[in-house]
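STRUCTURE:
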C-alpha cells in the first residue's frame, strides 16, 4: 500500500479525443442546456471521487485527431466550476501572450474569493503554433516563449504580494498596480515542459511541474535536472505526473488490451501528431508506441496491469519524488481498487 497522494484530472472542457487511430470519432460541442447537462454531471462525479485538483486546460484550436480538440474557454469554465464545486482545487491553464498578467492577476483574485481560496494557475508557454497564428499572437522562438512566461509569473507574483506594484519588462509593464480585492491565499504556480528553458523557469519561479508520462528512467532524469537547477536558486519544485491507468484482473489481460490499441494506431496520423507538436521539446519524442495512445503520453507511465502491479508502479514513482498523480478517470477498476487509497 502506498498511502494518500494528491490527485488531479482534466476538467470536462474538450469534446474531441486525441487517440491516434483510424476510427477516431469526431467530437461535437453540446450547446445551451445540453452543455450544462454534459459538463455538470461529469464535474459532480470527479469531485465525488475525492480528487484534490482539477486542471482546466485551454486548447484554443485543435483538430481532435492529431491532437486534442478545441476546448471551451478556460476562464469561463473555471468560473462555472467554482460555482458548482465545494472542495476540489481549480488549476487554470493560462497562455502568456493571449493574456496580460495584470488582467489575470485581477481575474485570479476574483476567482480566489469566489472559490474560497481554491484557485491555482498553470502557466503554459504553448506548443501549438497554429493556434497562436489564428489568434494573431506572437509565437516567438521556444526560448523567448519561456522568457515571456517568466515575466508573466513575475507580474502575477508581484501583484499578488505587493501593492502598489510596478514592473518594466521586455514583454509586460505595470504601473502602480493595486489589486482590489486583495487575494486571500498565496499564489501557487504550476507549469509543464521538460526542456532546459522550462527547467530554468521552474527552478526560479514555479511551485509545481506537470510531467508527461514515461519510463522510470525518463521521469527520474527530469526530476534530477530540476533538483539540480533548484540547488542554484534555493527553491523547491514539486512534481505531478500524467498517467492513463489501465487496470485489469491480471497483467496479461491488461497488456492484451494495450496491444489491441497499439494495433489500431494510424501511423500516418502519428507522424502528423509529432509534426504538429514540433514546437514542444519532449512531446511524443520517444519512439515507443505506448506514448501514442493518448495525449501527454499517459500510457507510457505504465500504470498497466493488475491492481498489485499498478500499486508497485505508483510506489516506484513516489520514490522518485512524484507527489501528485494526474490521470484520466475513465478506468473503472482503477477507481474502485486503487483510487480510494490515494484520496485517503
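SEQUENCE:
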Amino acid at each position: 500500500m502506498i498511502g494518500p497522494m494528491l490527485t488531479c484530472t482534466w476538467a470536462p472542457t474538450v469534446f474531441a479525443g486525441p487517440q491516434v487511430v483510424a476510427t477516431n470519432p469526431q467530437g461535437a460541442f453540446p450547446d445551451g442546456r445540453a452543455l450544462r447537462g454534459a459538463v455538470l454531471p461529469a464535474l459532480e462525479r470527479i469531485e465525488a471521487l475525492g480528487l484534490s485538483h482539477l486542471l482546466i486546460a485551454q486548447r484554443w484550436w485543435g483538430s481532435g485527431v492529431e491532437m486534442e480538440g478545441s476546448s471551451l474557454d478556460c476562464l469561463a469554465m473555471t468560473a462555472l466550476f467554482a460555482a458548482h464545486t465545494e472542495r476540489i482545487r481549480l488549476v487554470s491553464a493560462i497562455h502568456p501572450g493571449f493574456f496580460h498578467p495584470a488582467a489575470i492577476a485581477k481575474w485570479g483574485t476574483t476567482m480566489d474569493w469566489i472559490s474560497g481560496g481554491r484557485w491555482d494557475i498553470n502557466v503554459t508557454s504553448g506548443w501549438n503554433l497554429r493556434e497562436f497564428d489564428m489568434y494573431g499572437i506572437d509565437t516567438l522562438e521556444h526560448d523567448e516563449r519561456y522568457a515571456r512566461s517568466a515575466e508573466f509569473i513575475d507580474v502575477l507574483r508581484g501583484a499578488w504580494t505587493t501593492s502598489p506594484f510596478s514592473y518594466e519588462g521586455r514583454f509586460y509593464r505595470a504601473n502602480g498596480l493595486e489589486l482590489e480585492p486583495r487575494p486571500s491565499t498565496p499564489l501557487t504556480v504550476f507549469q509543464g515542459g521538460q526542456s532546459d528553458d522550462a527547467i530554468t523557469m521552474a527552478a526560479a519561479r514555479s511551485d509545481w511541474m506537470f510531467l508527461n508520462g514515461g519510463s522510470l528512467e525518463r521521469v527520474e532524469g527530469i526530476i534530477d535536472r530540476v533538483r539540480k537547477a533548484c540547488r542554484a536558486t534555493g527553491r523547491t519544485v514539486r512534481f505531478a505526473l500524467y498517467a492513463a491507468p489501465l487496470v485489469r484482473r491480471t497483467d496479461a489481460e491488461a497488456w492484451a488490451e494495450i496491444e489491441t490499441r497499439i494495433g489500431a494506431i494510424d501511423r500516418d496520423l502519428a507522424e502528423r501528431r509529432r509534426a504538429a507538436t514540433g514546437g514542444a521539446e519532449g512531446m511524443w519524442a520517444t519512439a515507443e508506441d505506448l506514448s501514442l495512445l493518448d495525449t501527454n503520453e499517459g500510457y507510457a507511465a505504465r500504470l498497466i496491469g493488475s491492481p498489485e502491479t499498478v500499486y508497485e508502479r505508483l510506489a516506484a514513482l513516489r520514490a522518485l519524488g512524484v507527489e501528485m498523480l494526474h490521470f484520466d478517470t475513465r478506468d473503472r477498476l482503477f477507481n474502485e481498487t486503487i483510487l480510494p487509497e490515494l484520496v485517503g
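REMARK: The chain has one domain: 6-343.
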